[in-house]
Amino acid sequence: MSTKVEQAASQPASGWGPLRHPDFRRLWLAQFTSNVGSWMQTVAAQWVMTSLTSSALLLSAISAAGSIPVLLLAVPSGALGDLVDRKRLIFGAQLVMLLAAAGLALLSAIGGLTPWLLIALLFVIGVGGAAGAPTWQTLQPELVPASDRAQAIALGSVNQNLARAVGPAIGGLLLAATSAALVFGVNAFSFVAVLAAVVLTRIPARKQDLPREHVTAAIRAGGRYVANSPVLLAVIVRSVGFVFFAGATWALLPLVARFRLGLGSAGYGLLLGCVGLGAVLAATFGPALKRRLPNRQIYLLGCLMIAVSAALLAVSHSVIVAAVVLVVAGAAWIIALGVMGAAYQGQLPAWVKARSFAYYLIAFQGANGIGALCLGGVAQATSVSTALLVVAGGLVAAGLLTFPLPLPGSGDPELLVSDPLPLPELPTTVEEGPVSVSVRYELAPGADQEFLAAAVELRRLRRRTGAVHWHLQRDLDDPMLFTELFIVGSWDDHERQHERIAAGDRAVLTRIDGLLAPGERRTARHALGIRVSHRD
């Protein structure tokens, strides 16, 4: 088994290479089936809503019912994904979606749907999707060798765009030929495929020597990790700038098809197909581009390609021009999302992967939804052409303004090394409370400025790995003597902190060790919080 994996890892990276691996292929195909079903459901739900009410607000609530659960539940769902059995979590989330989708089909068949009942069931389906999304998206790249992980992440976006290209068309044809109930039923059946794939897939086990974290503590730890990781924050900023404008292109596409190109539903389906074709081309030829250009240039190229596409859609009434530029825009969308997603996940160690990815997911969904609303408002107040020109200008500005920010490749952060400072034995007779740690640094003469510069990274690594408070003090009598003080929530958390030192963090500590006075070493003292009883 290991020989096969090594041989696969040694093969040249290919856009579709991750599909060589059975577990990844099984989940990817099941996800595609489910995504197609979801787009079919959206078409049917919109049609049913128009037959139940003329309210534009309730019609727009169909989209909100799917996106709001992600914004509300992604972070706690990500924390659960890092703590519990991932197979059971994904299975449970998919089962909830199956039951809600089946209920939707049944009520539609018997004529029992009302506008609010339709929205409620769509919201439950959205809750199931939000519960499993962070774990699902961070799990799939683990099913392939490291050399294929960047493309495995990119194929997730390809999956969604291909489904968007074919799902509405299939849903519309089936809706016209049969009924909304059958379309809802097909979507419910698509979750059966996902459940079967999850059961058959071998999910990599995670080693856990210490007691499991509490969910609320895990949520806070994930937030601290992201907040103290400049690279992750930079990728989130890039994602927001890109998705806010680029995602609005897809939201404006129905207006382009109807009012600028004079197309009907079939023509709109053709345009979606062009976007899907671009996704396929990006998956096929994207790796060759990534071997020739650094990630920051690829990201900027993606911004400019979609900007030019939006500008051409704004000024042209030609269907042929629209079809060509949408192929280009679809490819650029996948390539840009691929480098950002791979860069973000490549910085995440296993212990915090799903909960940290949840913040990226929230940024993506929030920027996508808000951007669509804002640019839709511009289109309503002025024209579709004006909105598309705003998209073009915004993408150029976003690409140039965020270009200096770091955008690393898809690294492998799994290498963890422990801090060599020893841990004292925990007194069993003392009730456990917060742990205060003080670390003493006796510096070589003149090394204080370099130490203070390194202390910026020292603070970040302590906060990333579990410190809830951090301070640095300088001795008044000896200017070369510094004391680092930080507080961790519990002794278990401090033990986890030692285990969560990554190779890059260890390099920071090694650099600081090189600044110590000859013969000096870092020394740490630990104090355990205790409760003091109050008496009258």
Description:
With 536 residues, the protein is mainly α. It has 17 helices and 4 strands. Helix content is 69%, strand content 6%. It is globular, with a radius of gyration of 26 Å. Mean pLDDT is 87; it is low at 1-12.
In short, what is this structure?
This protein is mainly alpha-helical and 536 residues long. It has helices at residues 2-10, 22-52, 56-83, 86-109, 115-139, 149-177, 180-200, 215-227, 230-260, 265-292, 295-315, 319-345, 353-381, 384-401, 448-465, 491-499, 503-513; strands at residues 435-442, 467-474, 481-488, 523-528. It is globular.
Radius of gyration: 26 Å
Number of helices: 17
> Helix coverage percent of residues?
55-70%
Strand content: 5-15%
H/E element order:
HHHHHHHHHHHHHHEHEEHHE
Number of strands: 4
Query: What's the main sheet like?
Result: 4 strands, antiparallel
Strand line-up of the largest beta sheet: 2-3-1-4
Structural class computed from helices and strand pairing? mainly alpha
Mean pLDDT: 87
Describe the protein's topology.
Blueprint: H1 2-10, H2 22-52, H3 56-83, H4 86-109, H5 115-139, H6 149-177, H7 180-200, H8 215-227, H9 230-260, H10 265-292, H11 295-315, H12 319-345, H13 353-381, H14 384-401, E1 435-442, H15 448-465, E2 467-474, E3 481-488, H16 491-499, H17 503-513, E4 523-528
Antiparallel strand pairs: 1-3, 1-4, 2-3
Helix pairs in contact: 2-3, 2-6, 2-7, 3-5, 3-8, 3-13, 4-5, 4-7, 5-13, 6-10, 6-12, 8-15, 9-10, 9-11, 9-12, 9-13, 9-14, 10-12, 11-12, 11-14, 13-14, 15-17
